[in-house]
Amino acid sequence: MNDTQSFLSFFGLREQPFAATADPAYFYATREHKECLFRLWNSIDERHGIAVVLGNYGTGKTTLLRKLITGMASDREKYNTAIIGSPIPSWTSFSLLEAIIAQFDLQPKTRSFVNYMESLNQYLLANRHRVTTLIIDDAQNLNKRGQLELLRLVQNLETPQHKLLNLALFAQMEWIAVLNAAPNFAQRVNLTYTLSALDVEETEAFIHFRLRQAGAADPGGFFTRDAVRLIQAYAEGSPRVTVTLCRNALLVAAYTGARPIGAEVILHPIEKTTLPDTEKRTRVVREVAALRMPSVTLPGASPPSEEKAPEFTAAPLLSAAAIPRTASAIEERASRLLLKAAKARQDINRGNL
Predict the structure, then answer these.
(1) What does the DSSP assignment read for 140-167?
(2) CA nearest to 190, candidates 10, 46, 6
(3) Alpha-carbon torsion (153, 157, 163, 165), positive or negative
(4) In the predicted model, is pLDDT for residue 298 greater than 60?
(5) What is the DSSP letter of 294?
(6) What is the Cα 200 distance to its own chain's centre?
(7) Residue 46 DSSP code
(8) pLDDT (0 to 100) of residue 278
(9) Which label site among 82, 116, 159, 308 has the fewest CB atoms less than 10 Å from its CB?
(10) Domains of the chain, with CATH numbers?
């Protein structure tokens, strides 16, 4: 049995529930995701023009985009769609126009701005019986006034009833400043939807959903509530960061035989498998203080000593000097427990040979 099979067997899973790839089967639609999709479909079907979806990294924008594309692909008679996956920030407005022309598979005879625009306009008029949409992911890369002016121009063609070209733009929050600096474009945006972070309840539901999709009979038996709170505190509600942290926590739990996965197990991958980030670790330290975490003994580890858990002040904010010391104490204790558990597990395995 290979390591992957052993890992899955230990947890009773068919496959890795927290894979790094964006598998549509593992897309957990929060209330916000569902509302956003509903509003997007309405804007597109009614041909209202420009729709913008905003959100921080890892909030599910690209997965929503894929859901949209899948729905459109299922009815090609009605929907006519072109996609620009990630525009290059250095593109001129003409480069962007070239990309749009290429995605609609147009081949103007002469390479000029006027001919390209005329070719696109004729194409849109010829396809006015279909819902034509240009989808752009990572739209925050379009940060030049000329790029937004080009999008305004290509979206300008319309009949008395509706627009001939929809724009569905998915961007990071940083794009807000760009939009505010281009009112001629921003005022034409029909829909703006901002995806927010997951709270603790949504984070727990998100984790349980992915575990259930991977074959877990009892997804609620994997992570304790305190562990979920630490995950949410570190990830700050980002589904992508949550997936990464859960994946690394499962590896620790499988190696040490920890079930369920408690708060102290989560501290180890935070310390060992993430980039040092004072702000994120400060959030975790404060959450630990709020939990008043008791001593936790991982299976196979020696009983913990009578050492006291780190003391926390009652002040709402820890001082900058106290935070690193407190975080270090917690992380060192988690590491010690992990190493003890790992050594005990190795000894047990040798004895079974």
Answers:
(1) GG--SHHHHHHHHHHT--B-SS-BS-EE
(2) 46
(3) negative
(4) no
(5) P
(6) 16
(7) T
(8) 80
(9) 308
(10) 3-20+198-346 (no CATH), 31-195 (3.40.50.300)
